[in-house]
Amino acid sequence: MRHKLRSALTVIGIGIAVLAFTLIRTVIGAWYAGIDAASADRLITRHAVSFVFSLPISYAAKIRQVPGVANLSHAIWFQGIYKDAREFKNFFPRMAIDTEHYFEVYPEFIIKKDQLEAFRKERNACIIGIKTARQHNFKIGDVIPITGDIYAGKWEFVIRGIYTGRDRLTDETQMFFDWQYLNERMKENDNTLRADRIGWYVVKVGDISKSAAISQQIDNIFKNSAAETKTETEKAFNQSFISMYSAIITAMNFISFVIVGIILLVLGNTMAMTARERTTEYAILKTLGFTSKHLLGMVSGESLTISLIGGALGILVAFPIIRGFQVAFPNMFPILPDPTITILIGGLAAVSVGIIASIFPVLRVMRMRIVDGLRHID
Asked: Which domain holds residue 151?
């Protein structure tokens, strides 16, 4: 408390740095949350060349015949433009799905039975996630107008259901509608290249231990065909999306550790100044019989106290900011990592910095001779 302003500015600086560090680690964790949410009993069968290429709907019958396949569904990315495409809040995943089996394969999407039945009876009906419904104030019966981009034209979807997630890792921002509706529109427009095509198959296996064998059998069926397939676990499929942004994630990881370095420099500079100003006092303490262990406790204890106060401040501020971002942009952060991990990482960073920043001041004090300390003039 000798230099209150300097101590306060140091605490605030550490708090801001820990806040930035925590936010970056949360974003990185959010990227990987989809991988953690993947189910072990689901396989994804897509085009062998790239995810952007479609597959014939006729493949479904052959995949169902593969031993070990318990259920099968399919979907295709639709997207389109809702209102103003320049506003990120208007982006939410929109997909055409197999209405009969999709929610059986994805039991984590919880929807009322009467809503699901109404959805299946109406061609242009859709089901949306609760987060998207709250963000746009959607309710049952509302019409969502979409301007096609991948699939040209004007589209209108009537909300017949709103699903919720079974657990924290379930994405509640998506919109689903009947693939048959999309397929019929393609045929009406004589778009034969896109008719009877789907984006990927979702294969539910009965025995997880046989997933690799089932994947191989499916791909062997369509080997040397016009549209060869690649079947992989849902986790590996989600990982392939993350790999497209590996450069960004690597950069963010690097920046997060640069921030830790900045915290270290800020606190290290403060502790070095403190130790230098108190050189004479430390010499007097040694004269009075205080050992090196006592001085170690004083210097490192002060460093840890400042670091922990700043770290706690940064973490406390981080949570409402993260929650605010999630509420304002649920599609950017559909799934946030476990906050316990965020607290531990932020706290560990603060403790590590507090310890490391005190090393050089402590060594200086412990090696200092009493005579040299008493002669020191600040």
From this structure: 54-226
Q: What is the pLDDT at residue 240?
A: 76
The first and second tokens of residue 206, run together, are: 């009965």
Helices (H) and strands (E) in the chain, counts: 13, 12
In a domain, 45, yes or no: no
Within-domain flag for 49: no
Do both 332 and 294 map to the same domain?
yes
* 46 vs 59: CA distance, rounded Å: 11
Mean pLDDT by 10 residues, the chain (378 residues): 82 86 80 74 94 92 95 95 80 94 95 96 95 92 93 94 90 94 89 88 94 95 93 87 72 82 79 76 81 82 86 86 72 68 79 82 78 67
Contact indicator for 255, 348 with CB cutoff of 8 Å: no
- Beta strand ranges found along 184-334 (DSSP E): 197-198, 200-205, 229-233
Q: What are 204's strand-pairing partners?
A: 42, 71
Q: How many CB atoms lie within 10 A of CB 280?
A: 14
Distance CA 200, CA 377 (A): 76
The answer to whether residues 314 and 17 touch, using CB atoms and an 8 Å cutoff, is: yes
The pLDDT of residue 100 is 94
pLDDT of residue 244: 66
Q: In which residue are the tokens 């998506």 written? A: 174
Res 98: pLDDT: 96
- CA-wise closest residue to 174 among 234, 94, 101, 120: 94
pTM score: 0.74
- Among 15, 19, 12, 55, smallest CA distance to 342 is for 19
pLDDT at 331: 65
Whether 170 and 311 share a structural domain:
no
**Cβ contact 68:213 at 8 Å:** yes
Residues 291, 153 within the same domain: no
What's the CA gap between 357 and 269, in Å, rounded? 8
User: What number of CA atoms fall less than 13 Å from residue 159's CA on the CB side?
Assistant: 23
pLDDT at position 354 is: 82
